[in-house]
Specification:
297 residues; alpha/beta; D-Maltodextrin-Binding Protein, domain 2; 3 domains; 5-stranded mixed β-sheet; 14 strands; elongated
């Protein structure tokens, strides 16, 4: 049984079709179909049902998918253990935030590709929540607070932020003095998230309300500058606008607790060496900035 056949089957199962799996693997659809046919012939069972929307797992396929994924992961781990100093090969699928990714993290991924010419790096830049397990990503770079307990996470640097609003909004609606006053204001949010603030050593949690929501920090920044409400944003997004006076800090006596930038991956005893190397490069990249200003800017 070829490991490439197992890897291809897992990709098709996770991607939901031959075409997206072929794009992920960087091969033609005919190669993907040939590998699937060979695997099903060897096993003597049908693993996938082709549909107009792609491909769906049969009952046997759903059972076999988990075993195949574990086998592929174990092969990767074994390969890393026996040739720890070897050239990185294969593919690394990374999800990164749109708000910070292209400016802060893309140079590191580009440097990694330069150092390891046999490695394929596929990055998706988005501020939406990416389910690493169901969508088949090796890891993600996330900014904020880690909430998915299924994932393994390692912090690469702190992220500081603050509440901000436009001078026009403050003039028209006032500024909250304490966290409990935030519910009376228009909050600019990604969804239904809670906001946390420090009252001395105590963490205070509030559930803000607002009519403007976006899954992109840059869009929330634009809304804040336009005077639509109060936003909690990282300093890296707001620094220039605070300097110019387009935004002003709000409720500074109750700062949000520091968030972080993390590399997260699906659970497992040993992270793949390509993920370890990416994490180390990101920590090294963030260290000079962290030492200079105390946060990723």
């Amino acid at each position: 049984m070829e490991i490439s056949d197992l890897e291809t089957f897992v990709e098709v199962a996770d991607a939901g079709g031959v075409s997206p799996a072929a794009r992920r693997l960087g091969v033609s659809k005919s190669i993907v179909s040939r590998r699937l046919f060979r695997l099903e012939a060897e096993l003597g069972v049908q693993l996938l049902v082709r549909t107009t929307r792609g491909a769906a797992l049969t009952e046997a396929g759903a059972t076999f998918r988990d075993h195949a994924a574990r086998a592929c992961a174990e092969i990767d781990i074994a390969r890393d253990l026996i040739i720890p100093g070897g050239e990185l090969r294969g593919r690394l699928r990374v999800a990164a935030p749109l708000s910070f990714g292209p400016t802060h993290f893309a140079p590191v991924l580009a440097d990694m590709a330069r150092r390891h010419p046999q490695l394929q790096i596929h990055t998706c830049y988005t501020d939406r929540f990416v389910d690493l397990i169901s969508e088949g990503y090796d890891c993600a770079i996330r900014v904020g607070y880690i909430q998915d307990s299924r994932l393994m996470a390692r912090q690469i640097g702190p992220i500081y932020g603050k509440l901000v609003a436009s001078p026009g909004y403050v003039a028209a609606h006032g500024s909250p003095a304490t966290p409990d006053e935030i519910v009376a204001h228009e909050a600019l949010m990604q969804g239904t998230e809670a906001w946390q603030f420090m009252d001395g050593d105590t963490t205070v949690t509030v559930r803000p309300q607002g009519r403007f929501k976006a899954d992109d920090g840059t869009a929330l920044l634009a809304a804040a500058v336009a005077g639509l409400g109060i936003a909690w944003l990282p300093d890296g997004l707001t620094h220039d606008h605070l300097e110019s006076g387009a935004l002003v800090p709000v409720m500074t006596d109750y700062p949000p607790p520091p968030a972080g930038a993390y590399v997260v991956r699906p659970p497992g005893l040993h992270p793949a060496r390509k993920i370890r190397i990416l994490t180390e490069m990101l920590i090294e990249h963030c260290a000079p900035v962290r030492n200079a200003v105390g946060a990723i800017r």
